[in-house]
Write a structure and sequence with these properties.
single chain, alpha/beta, 4-stranded antiparallel β-sheet, 11 helices, about 30% helix, about 20% strand, binds adenosine-5'-diphosphate, binds magnesium ion
């Protein structure tokens, strides 16, 4: 799909991106929130990057920044070799149609007063300038492609289940043949079996069209099976990233370990150890802790953690982690979760 992409380079390349919001409160000083801090990642064509973290950690803002839907304070974003932050006018519109977004609530992307066929054909009429007849024919194909009957085309969103509505939103998102889709909590509101069906659909479309996904979810369990690589966010920054297998089996960051320990493990012969309860609340993003942002909730916190931000370091098995344990700690990051749990109990 992306003929002008240099071979081997990532389709989406995000480098040290920062997004800052100014919050105006009445009778109070305007506060700034660094919603996204020095975030970097790449996504190749046909690849899925899972982005996880608690609510408020900056996942949606990251996804919106990549689509240039929020102002980017600093950093660089390139898509298929184009410097996205420098594009304007026609070139920006052209770049944008290669990138789409699917939201948690299809009601926010589907017009409740428009039929399915009308919703799916709208981008074709607007951007592809197809005739009404051609657009409808293509919409019917898309509706079947996402697993719905073409005979549903003249129904309205309220006549469908949540999973079906999400399929319609996906049909609309792929109408213009994008290369890249941000799925922002796209399956989070669905029950588990519907989640799996929609994930299977996304997988099938990814393979068929070589799509790249930024797959956002607050729950690590959801992204596990769809992601090639995973990045974990906390208070605006990526604290750990790497191949999904490595992150799930050998999480290096105490925050990732805590998130993973909360997932029930279906395999009886693999012991995950005790559940790590995350104490306390996520700090106010407008007043983040000094040093490591996670230190106020970290059971391994050391003096150095309050003094300086840990650097990103490579993890055995792939990826990176930003944690002082990696460099100054008594524990070897990347050790199996059970070992770390045991070590923490001994302390
Ligand atoms: N438009 C906005 N204006 C001001 N603050 C915002 C805006 N959007 C998000 N934020 C703030 O940025 C931080 C990250 O939000 P968000 O990206 O939505 O997190 P997540 O998707 O991980 O739940 C939060 O503190 C949120 O309140
Ligand atoms: Mg969000």
């Amino acid at each position: 799909m992306s003929a002008d992409l240099s071979p081997g380079g990532p389709l989406v390349d995000v480098r040290d991106v920062n997004v800052v919001f100014r919050k105006k409160a009445m009778f109070k000083k305007t506060r700034t929130v660094e919603a996204v801090k020095n975030v970097s990642f790449g996504i190749a064509a046909g690849e899925t990057l899972g982005l996880v973290g608690e609510s408020g950690s900056g996942k949606s803002t990251t996804g919106r920044a990549v689509l240039r839907l929020v102002p980017v304070a600093s950093g660089a974003i390139s898509v298929a070799g184009h410097d996205l932050l420098r594009l304007e006018g026609r070139a920006l519109r052209k770049a944008r149609r290669r990138m789409q977004m699917v939201f948690q609530d299809p009601y926010s992307s589907l017009d409740p007063s428009a039929t399915v066929a009308a919703s799916v054909s709208e981008p074709l009429l607007v951007h592809d300038r197809l005739s009404a007849r051609e657009a409808r024919a293509r919409a019917l194909d898309l509706i079947e492609l996402v697993g719905l009957r073409a005979s549903y085309a003249d129904r309205y969103p309220y006549e469908f289940s949540g999973g079906q509505r999400q399929r319609i939103a996906i049909a609309r998102a792929i109408a213009l043949n994008p290369d890249f889709i941000v799925c922002d909590e796209a399956v989070s509101a669905l029950d588990v079996s519907t989640q799996n069906q929609v994930i299977n659909l996304l997988e099938r479309l990814r393979e068929e069209f070589d799509l790249a996904y930024l797959f956002i979810a607050h729950d690590l369990a959801i992204v596990r099976h769809i992601s090639h690589r995973v990045a974990v966010m906390y208070l605006g920054g990526i604290v750990e990233s790497g191949p999904a297998e490595r992150v799930y089996n050998h999480p290096a960051h105490p925050y990732t370990q805590a998130l993973l320990s909360a997932i029930p493990d279906p395999s009886p012969h693999r012991r995950r150890g005790e559940r790590i309860v995350l104490e306390g609340e996520v700090p106010d993003p407008a007043r983040p802790p000094s040093g490591c942002p996670f230190r106020t909730r970290c059971r391994f916190a050391m003096d150095v953690c309050a003094e300086r931000m840990p650097e990103r370091t490579a993890v055995e098995g792939g990826g990176e982690v930003a944690c002082h344990l990696q460099t100054s700690g008594p524990l070897l990051a990347g050790a199996p979760l059970g070992d770390l749990t045991a070590a923490a109990t001994r302390r």
